[in-house]
Write a structure and sequence with these properties.
- The complex is a heterodimer.
- Chain A is α/β, with parallel strands linked by helices.
- Chain A is built from 5 helices and 5 strands; from the N terminus they run H-E-H-E-E-H-E-H-E-H.
- Chain A has helices at 33-51, 64-72, 103-115, 126-131, 163-178, and strands at 56-57, 85-86, 94-98, 121-125, 154-156.
- In chain A, helix 1 packs antiparallel against helix 5.
- The longest helix of chain A is centred in the N-terminal third of the chain and has 19 residues, at 33-51.
- Chain A is globular, with a radius of gyration of 23 Å.
- By secondary structure, chain B is α/β, with parallel strands linked by helices.
- Chain B is 22% helix and 29% strand.
- In chain B, the strands form 3 sheets. Chain B has a 5-stranded mixed sheet with strand order 1-2-5-4-3. Chain B has a two-stranded parallel ribbon with strand order 6-7.
- Chain B is elongated and about 55 Å long.
- The N and C termini of chain B lie far apart (49 Å).
- The chains are: A alpha/beta, B alpha/beta.
């Protein structure tokens, strides 16, 4: 039967299958094929809510912090991406490492990262946090990249990066979050 | 006050403890003194009414490879004049009396010189590392400093 455009069925899920699936007929004891549609939507919803409220730990250790403050202030207004700063790691989803990390600071970086609840993300902002930057050669006190201490999701180049670059980094992280699979079959 | 006049004043009072005047190419001029008498000369420079150097602007360590030096930059708010004072130290035992009871601001500067050069200030109220971690080994601004390979498992 061909559907009539004027009097056909409304769009939406089809009628339930005529014969219910027999117990034990599925090859694995996981969720059925229809359930994957529901789980995919749950992924979308969870990822959307996570990327839309990226509260970042206020963690400015050098001049990149000045650009970070400017990006958070009214002209660039990172609040419109749902990114607001928190003063405690326990309420933060994102650690924005903005500036030089010294060996004396390294223990604190690691401890603050460990205090953040899952899921947590790290953006390395500026040359110092990426590689040590101008202190890469002949410095006894600067850590040559924060990725020696904690895993990093997004690197932002620049010395320091402009607020536009920082916002681009946040949007890149949002794209990464939207690709995550939280539910469903692991295979 | 002219640097030469000040130098003559100090020379008349302290004799051999005041070594020479380094006026060429540096402003303010430096009076080189013996390290053992730094504290009494500093007290005289602060308390004498004609001098009254009430402000220690800077205290720095210097590494000349064959010897160390501690340089003091002094300024007088009252008379609006400035002078430098310098003491040379042997490389093997770099130590001299503290001046933190003459100018309390000296304490942080002395801690920095101790931290980065390993210069010991005898009688200091609180001589600890100020910039580097407590368990750091060595004094990095010395010319013969060798970098460590790792610190707490992180490559330096």
């Amino acid at each position: 039967m061909s559907p009539d455009p004027a009097h056909g069925q409304p769009p939406g899920p089809g009628p339930p299958p005529a014969a219910p699936l027999a117990h034990g007929s599925a090859p694995s004891p996981g969720l059925g094929p229809e359930a994957h549609v529901m789980v995919g939507n749950a992924d979308l919803f969870v990822n959307w809510s996570r990327k839309s409220s990226l509260w970042y730990l206020l963690f400015a250790t050098a001049c990149c912090g000045i650009e970070l403050m400017q990006a958070g202030a009214s002209r660039y207004d990172m609040d419109r991406f749902g990114a607001v700063f928190r003063a405690t790691p326990r309420q933060s989803d994102l650690m924005l490492v903005a500036g030089t990390i010294t060996h004396k600071m390294a223990d604190r970086v690691k401890r603050l990262y460990d205090q953040m609840p899952e899921p947590k993300y790290v953006i390395s902002m500026g040359s110092c946090a990426n590689t040590g930057g101008p202190f890469y050669k002949d410095s006894y006190c600067v850590v040559k990249g924060v990725d020696l201490l904690i895993p990093v999701d997004v690197y932002i180049p620049g010395c320091p990066p402009r607020p536009e670059a920082l916002i681009d980094g946040i949007m890149s992280l949002q794209k990464i979050i939207m690709r995550k699979k939280n539910f469903g079959a692991k295979a | 006050m002219e640097a030469q006049v000040l130098f003559d004043t100090l020379k008349g009072k302290f004799g051999d403890a005041v070594v020479e005047l380094q006026g060429e190419g540096c402003s303010p001029a430096f009076v080189v003194v013996a390290p053992a008498s730094v504290q009494e000369i500093a007290r005289f420079l602060r308390d004498d009414p004609a001098l009254s150097f009430d402000s220690l602007m800077c205290l720095s360590g210097v590494d000349y490879k064959e010897k160390f030096a501690v340089a003091y930059h002094l300024h007088s708010m009252k008379h609006r004049h400035a002078i430098g004072m310098k003491a040379f130290l042997p490389r093997e035992t770099p130590s001299l009396p503290t001046v933190d009871d003459v100018w309390p601001a000296a304490n942080f500067h002395e801690r920095e010189a101790f931290d980065l050069f390993g210069i010991v200030f005898e009688g200091s109220k609180d001589l600890r590392r100020i910039l580097l971690p407590e368990d750091w080994e060595g004094h990095p601004l010395r010319k013969d400093y060798k970098y460590p390979d790792f610190y707490h498992g992180i490559k330096v």
